[in-house]
Design brief:
Layout lengths: L2 E5 L4 E6 L4 H9 L7 E7 L3 H13 L2 E4 L12 E6 L7 E2 L1 H4 L9 H8 L1 E5 L12 H9 L3 E5 L2 E5 L8 E3 L5 H12 L4 E5 L5 H12 L3 E3 L6 E4 L7 E4 L4 H14 L1 E6 L7 H9 L3 E5 L2 E6 L8 E3 L11 H8 L5 E5 L9 H6 L4 E5 L2 E5 L8 E3 L3 H13 L3 E5 L2 H6 L3 H6 L4 E5 L3
Parallel strand pairs: 2-15, 3-14, 6-7, 10-11, 18-19, 22-23
Antiparallel strand pairs: 1-23, 1-24, 3-5, 4-5, 7-9, 8-9, 11-13, 12-13, 15-17, 16-17, 19-21, 20-21
Helix pairs in contact: 1-2, 1-7, 4-6, 5-6, 6-7, 8-10, 8-12, 10-12
Bound molecules: uridine-diphosphate-N-acetylglucosamine.
Uridine-diphosphate-N-acetylglucosamine binds next to helix 1, helix 5 and helix 6.
Length: about 425
């Protein structure tokens, strides 16, 4: 298994290109199941999760082609991919594929909407607490599907197609909202989603669906109205920039000090996180080319932050923020409200000398002056990158083991950081 070796203590200076958002790319790829036409996605990141989903979609009959690389293209530039589901050849998503990536469960809605049935394995995925799919199944029932759970599979049927309905989410759910949007787009009649997730990736999916011919109003607000259509067509859509990658590198700069342009980033997609990063003492400014992050001298200031659904501070940046404030000039508090058990990075951060105490869903972090490099282990996608942030500022050498977690969500991480002066290398196994 690959490892990443980092020698800390270097400031970051330069430019980091921001990739297309993983969390938009996945539902957009899945939307290709809704049409016989070709869906062309630009700015798709090169990530293990994207390749894994391509394999899952191929199993259903999606023809997946990557547009030829032009000379001069760098491998941090997004790729253009054509997805064509002319015929759905299989409506079953088996355990061995779905268990590797939770979001692949989202194939359920488009398969039922188009084919009247689907059998999808209940997911595994990130080890961050129990992550049920009850609300996704509730949304499918509200759209008229019959649901059975059998042998570890969710079986959904709607022989005469899905029907528009009222969907009231008792809790904000991104996956539930994606499911409802895709199902309702091809349902008979009108659907209203109440308490919808407002994440930018929801808006990106809705915009792509509208290019495909869907009738959607209100994406990005709490109430989304969808008037179902009989069929959708192919379309061309560019994936929006990754706000989690943006926030991660912004925190890395806030940690080491320096001056980095996050090229292509959009501050409006993560304003709450940038506000917190500014409270720690860094500056984040939107320019024509992206977001410029600087921190010159001065201590890192402590913060008090609670994760919330968008537009609040994202749970996917919680671990990275914790790494940053391990070196703050005082005590920080970070409360996690979205996922239980999303503090696995705490014990790994302690290996650098961080002082963190847990009190229920709150972590209390006493800033220390110095971190020291150590061998550490990646546990989930966002937790792993928090270890990278700690390592960049730690004295001496760190090796991060199990970096396949990083490869799921961060494109060319060691190249991007290396180009800005970090001492970082991948050590390939075997
Ligand atoms: C998505 C993101 C993930 C992010 C999360 C919250 C993708 C591929 N993943 O995950 O990176 O951390 O949003 O912003 O986009 N819940 C239920 N029942 C359900 C579904 C969810 O109780 O049927 C709960 C979850 O356990 C969690 C909360 O709702 O407590 C929010 O989860 P949700 O927004 O659905 O997360 P995902 O869509 O899985």
């Amino acid at each position: 298994m690959d490892r990443i070796r980092i020698v800390g203590g270097h400031r970051l200076n330069g430019t980091i290109p921001i990739s297309g958002a993983k969390n938009a790319a996945l539902p957009l790829m899945i939307a290709s199941l809704l049409t016989e036409g070709t869906l062309t996605l630009e700015n798709l990141p090169r990530l293990a999760d994207v390749s894994q989903l391509a394999r899952i979609l191929a199993n259903h009959g999606v023809d997946y082609t990557i547009e030829g690389k032009r000379s001069g293209d760098s491998d941090t530039q997004g790729q253009t991919v054509h997805l064509a589901a002319r015929q759905i050849v299989d409506t079953t998503a088996p355990y061995d594929l779905v268990s590797k990536m939770r979001a692949s469960f989202w194939v359920l809605a488009p398969l039922v909407a188009r084919m009247g049935e689907a059998k999808v394995s209940l997911p595994g995925g990130c080890a961050i607490g129990t992550r049920p799919v009850d609300l996704l199944l509730m949304a499918m029932k509200d759209l008229g599907a019959e649901i059975e759970i059998e042998g570890g599979y969710a079986i959904a049927r709607a022989k005469n197609g899905l029907k528009g309905g009222d969907i009231n989410f008792p809790k904000v759910t991104v996956g539930g909202t994606h499911t409802a949007l895709m199902g309702a787009s091809l349902a008979h009649g009108t659907t209203v989603i109440h308490n919808a997730a407002r994440e930018p990736e929801i808006v990106d999916l809705a915009e792509c669906l509208m290019k495909m011919g869907a009738k959607i109003k209100g994406a990005g607000t709490k109430t989304i109205e969808i008037e179902g259509v009989a069929r959708l067509n192919g379309a061309r859509h560019a994936v929006l920039p990754d706000r989690i990658e943006t926030g991660t590198y912004a925190m890395a700069v806030a940690m080491t000090g320096g001056d980095v342009l996050l090229q292509g980033a959009r501050a409006d997609l993560l304003q709450a996180a940038l506000d917190v990063i500014e409270q720690t003492g860094a500056k984040c400014v939107q320019t024509n080319d992206g977001v410029r992050v600087t921190r010159n001298g001065g201590p890192i200031q402590p913060v008090d932050v609670t994760t919330e659904p968008y537009p609040g501070f994202p749970t996917d940046l919680q671990a990275q923020l914790m790494a940053l404030v391990t070196r703050a000039n005082g005590t920080s508090r970070i409360t996690e409200t979205i996922f239980e058990n999303r503090f696995m990075h705490v014990s790994e951060l302690a290996r650098f000398g961080a002082q963190i105490r847990l009190d229920g869903d709150t972590a209390i972090i006493e800033g220390v002056e110095k971190l020291k490099g150590a061998p550490v282990m990646a546990t989930d996608l966002r937790a792993s990158v928090s270890l990278v942030i700690a390592a960049l500022a730690a004295e001496g050498e760190t090796t991060v083991n199990r970096v396949y977690h990083l490869d799921r969500g961060f494109e060319a991480l060691e190249k991007k950081l290396g180009a800005c002066g970090a001492e970082v290398e991948r050590i390939s196994a075997g």
